[in-house]
Design goal:
132 residues; alpha/beta; Rossmann fold; 7 helices; 54% helix
Length: 132
């Protein structure tokens, strides 16, 4: 695995709004998913499609766990962002994605400028905007 997909990128992939190279990487098991992304993505599912979509996502993307100390990591990221007056963009789910990616040494795949902000403030955080 190289990437942890964020909801913003996952929705674009599901809607076929990305370069097909991402489909290939996904097929090779290089793009993982975590629980906060599943939760956010499944909000858009119709009740009758919910279980099928969840199973499809878990069959398609390797699952990585949110680390036990995710809240400690989120607190550190929040404070680093606040020191640069850049703390207002990340959602709680985004903070957990950042913590999970950093813990597992993964690059966050996204379509969300807030992750780019984290990358500017914390150079050790790896992120990549998904290509169209």
């Amino acid at each position: 695995m190289n990437f942890l997909i964020d909801t913003s990128a996952l929705v674009r992939v599901l809607r076929k709004q990305t370069d097909q190279a991402w489909d290939k990487r996904t097929g090779q098991g290089l793009v993982a998913v975590c629980e906060p992304v599943l939760m956010e993505t499944l909000i858009i599912a119709r009740a009758k499609d919910y279980q099928r979509l969840e199973e499809t996502l878990l069959d398609t993307y390797p699952w990585v766990p949110v680390p036990d100390r995710a809240w400690d990591s989120a607190r550190e990221v929040r404070r680093a962002l606040a020191a640069q007056s850049a703390h207002q963009g990340l959602s709680v789910a985004d903070h957990l994605v950042v913590a999970t990616a950093m813990h597992h040494g993964l690059t966050v795949l996204h379509d969300d400028a807030d992750f780019e902000t984290v990358g500017r403030v914390l150079p050790e955080f790896q992120q990549e905007r998904i290509t169209a």
